[in-house]
Every structure is written in C-alpha cells, then in structure tokens.
Amino acid sequence: MSSPQTSPAPGSPPASSRRAIPVVVIGVLVVLMLAFGRVNRRDPGLTEKRARYLQDVEHLGGFVLGDLCLPKLAGAIATDDDDELSAAFAKIAGAWIPPEIDQMASRQHGAVTVTTWQRIEQKREDVVDGEQLVSWLQEQRRRFASIDAVRLKVKRMQPETAGRLDGPWNGTLQLNITGQAAEERPRSTTFELSCRLGSLDDQLPERDDWFLELVVDRAEITESSRLLMEEMTDETGIDVARLHDNWRDISGSRTPALTGGIYLADYDGDRHVDCLVTDISGPGPLPRNRQGTIPGRDRPGGIAEVVQRVAGRLGRLRQRRRPRPGARPTLLPQRSGRSGGKNPADCSTSWPASTPGSS
User: Fold this and answer.
1) For residues 153 and 184, is the Cβ–Cβ distance under 8 A?
2) Model pTM greater than 0.90?
3) What DSSP state is assigned to residue 314?
C-alpha cells in the first residue's frame, strides 16, 4: 500500500528563495557598516592648510585693512584732508556714487527726516574718477557743521580668487558719519560700499592708491529738528557717583553678573509709579510721596516699613543668586503722573538726602 504524496501549498515560495533572503539581508548590513565606518574615519573640522588660510584672510582683511588702513581714511574724511583722500584713490579705475540728495526718497517721522537710496544697477556711463569721488566724500563731510565721529569698517573682505592672497581682493565696507548739521540739528549718514583692491598685504598701510574700484550701493541719511534723547540724570536727584559702575568698578572674575537694577512699580499703593534702585555698593535716598509720607501715615516710619518689606522680598530673591555680601536695595520715586498718565504734573518731587542708619 503506497502513501499519498503531498504537494507544496499553493502560493508559497520555493525553498531556494527562502534560503536566499537571509543572505541578501546580511549583505545589505555589511554594506551599511562599511559606509558608516568610512564616514567615521573622516577627519573632523578644517585641515591645517585651510585653517591657516582663513587666519591669513582674517589678519589681512580684518586687521591690516580694517584696523590699520581704514581708520586713517576715516580721519581724513573727518578733517577734510584733501591730500590723504586723493592719495587713497589716486589709481582708482572707476567709482560709482549716489545722485544728489534731492533725487532720493524721503520720509518724515515726527521731527525726524529719513532719506534713503538703493543702487539698482551699475551703469558704465555713471562711472566717476578718483577726483570726483574725493569731491563727493568731502561734500558729505561738509553737510555737517560739527562732527561727532566718522567710522569706516570692514563688513566682508576676501581674495577675488579663493586661495590666492597675493591677487586682487573684493569686499564691502560701511561708512558712518554722525554729528550736527546747521542750527545744531542731529544728523547721521550711513553708506554701504563695495570695493576692489589691487592687493592686500602687511605693507598696505605704508602705500597709497589702495582701491581699484569703489561703489556706493546704499545710502541712508537721517536728520532731526531737535534732540530725541538728552541727559537727565541731574534732574532725577539720583547721585550716580554712589552707585556701582560696571565700566569703572571692576573687581575681576568675582564681580557678580547682576550688580544692580531699576524696577518700576507702585510699591506703596498710592497710584504713583515708584522707582526701585538696587545697587551692590550700598543704600541710597529714601522714598517720598508728595506729602513726604505714605498715604494714611503721619509719620516717616511708614516709609521705612515699605523699604523693609521690599528689601525682604529682594533679599529672598538675592539669596538664590548668591550675590556679594553687603548688597542693599534703595527705593526712589520716579517723576511720573498718576495711573493713566492724565496728570503728568501731579508727581513725586521730593528728593531728600539719605541719613546715616537709614534703611
């Protein structure tokens, strides 16, 4: 008696195909591991040659041109030195300057007039020579009755051909002139410049004729009929000489990050905004309202209570920051009107001097 023969189930893959699947998977994993290992073997960062090249570019473009040469040119603009300016542009092949200011777009913002201009295209017929460029620079300087500062800075500078430090260089500069126009009107002009230099090396400060081309790409001229901000420290009654000065009072790495601050709030609830001045160097004047005391109190002791209450809260916060020992807050009123600003004249005006032992 013979046994019945079984046939493979319909749709199932042959045994040889099933055996090939693990081989394919293993092959893919091996390829991925080899690729990953090749990536990991790559040297991170810049090569020594590339790093040295970038250092040379920074030295020549940032230090030699930016720190040694351009300040001399800025000084020549400030003093209207015709000889120095002419020497810098003696061999310039071409320059492009903006049109007259009356051909630029102007906008009025209260007391401030802002005039802007942007170069759209660089036409060959608009090119000027070095003498005309110097005259244009002098004209920008002479629009100021007095000069506060002239700054000429490098924004970007690189060799025209990558890797060749001994060839021409291309870059962008920014020229900023600030001062006063006629009738002491504040004025500021900023020009974005594109430039091309024939060469750039350590001997450039001793040479003349630095530029081959100079293009004024953008101009912004701002002028105001009056001062927008002015010094008012003396009017506040705050003796700033008693406060810590981060620029002057430097004590090394032990100086805390927070040496004082100014905080505005209605600390005593009288609907007047007070000014809390905290300083690491010690206390200052005590707060006063219009009557010299806190509303509802007929004795100066109420003021000390407010100071102690606020100082206690700040003390808990300062403990978390671990400041230098001896930091004490002082409370000063600010000249401001009642809430809503409808009566600016109704404000705190008493500024008594601090007395020994006050908190």
Assistant:
1) no
2) no
3) H
